[in-house]
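As described in the Methods, two query proteins were run sequentially through the folding procedure within a single session, without resetting any intermediate state between them. The first query and its resulting C-alpha cells are shown here.
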Amino acid sequence: MKLLGSIYIAIAILVLTTAIGWYVDIHNDRMHQRHLAVHTQLERMVRLKQELNAMLTLAVLQENTLRASTYDRVHSDLNTTLKSVQQLTQTLGLSNEMAVVQADHDKLGTIESQAIAAMEQEQWPQARRLLFDDDYLLTKKIYEINSETAVGVLTAELGNQAQHLDRLRSTALGLRVGAVLLLLGVSVVFSRRLRQELHQHEHMERE
C-alpha cells in the first residue's frame, strides 16, 4: 500500500509540474509579446515626437508654413500611439510614468498649436518665441527624459517577470526530478520484493 501511495504521489507531482511548465511557457510567450508591442510603440512615440520637433523647427526658421503642413497628421498619430501604450501598460506598472508623459505631451501640444496658428497668420516672431521659449524647451526635455524613464521601467519589469518565471520553472524542474527519483525508488523496491517472492516461491516448490 505504501508503494502504491508513493506511485500516486509521484504521478501527481509529475502532472502538477507539467501543468506548471505549460503555464510558465504560455505566460512567458504572452509576456514577451506584450513587452515587444510596448517597446515598438514607445520607439514609435519617440520617433514621431522627433519628427514633429524637426518639422516645427524648420518651418519657423525658414518661415515656411508648408514645412508644418503634416503637423496635424503626425500629431494625431502620436496621440494614437500614446493611447496604445497606455492600454498596453495598464498591467505592467507603467501607469504613473505614462500619465506623466501624457501630461507633458498635452502641454507641448498646446504650445505647438499656438505656434502653428501664429505661422498661419505669418506672425513669425511670435511663433519663434513660442518654440524657442525656455518653458517649451524645458518641457520638451522633460518629455524626452520621462519617455526614457518609461522604457527603463518597462525593461526592469521585464527582468523581474523573467526572474519570477525562471524561479517557478526551476522549482517545477526540481519537483519533477524528485518525482522521477521517487518512481525509480519505488520500482527498485518493487523489483526487490518481486525477486524475493519468486525466490520464496521456488524454495517452497523444491520442498
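Immediately afterward, the second query was submitted; its sequence and C-alpha cells are:
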Amino acid sequence: LSQEGFIHARPWHGTFVAEYPPHLYHFGLVIETAIPHNQWWEQTRFCHALEQEAAIFSRQGTRTIKTFFIDPRKQISTDQAERLEEHVRARRLAGLIIVNPYSPVSHDLIRSQLLPCVIFSNTDDIKGVTRIRLDPRRFIDRALDAMKARGRRRIALIASATTSDKTLEYMSSQAAVRGLETSPAWQQGAFVEQNRWV
C-alpha cells in the first residue's frame, strides 16, 4: 500500500492514509497506436501533444496522468496493456482518457465500467461514457485561412483514408469560398501506420 501511494509512514508517529491516494488523483491516458512508442509521435502530433500536456498537468498539481500505449492490431495483451489492466484491477487509477478506443483492451475497460472514461473518438456514443469528438470542419477552416494568409492559391489535402465524402466536399467548398483552387485529384487518403503509400 505504501509503494502504491495509498498510505505513508512517519517515523515515531504512525502510518497514515495518503492525502492524495491514487484511486482519486491518478488518471490513465490510453493511446492506441500501431507505431512503436519511441517513434509514433513523429507521425501523430495530436497524440504527442496530449502526452506532453499530461506531463505538464502532472507536474503542476496533486493529480497525475500516466500514459499507456496500446497496439490496437494485437489481440493478445502487450506489456503496456497488462500494466494498464493491473492498475485498473488494483484500483490505482481514478479514471481513463482513451484516444481512439479500437483495441479489445480498451473496449473491455469501457464496457466493464470499473472506472469513469472519457474517449476521443468519432464513433457513435457509448452509453455512460463521455465522448470528445474532434471537429474536422474547424480544422479545415483554420488550415485554409492559414494557407490563404501565406499567399497560397492551390491546395491539396492529405487526410485519413477513412475521411468521409462530406468532409472532402466541405474542404472543396470552403477553398472555393476563399478563392483557393483545389481538385479531387489533389485529395489523398493515407493510413498513418503506412504513410509510405502517400
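The first strand starts at residue 7 and ends at 10. We note this only descriptively and draw no conclusion about the first query from it.
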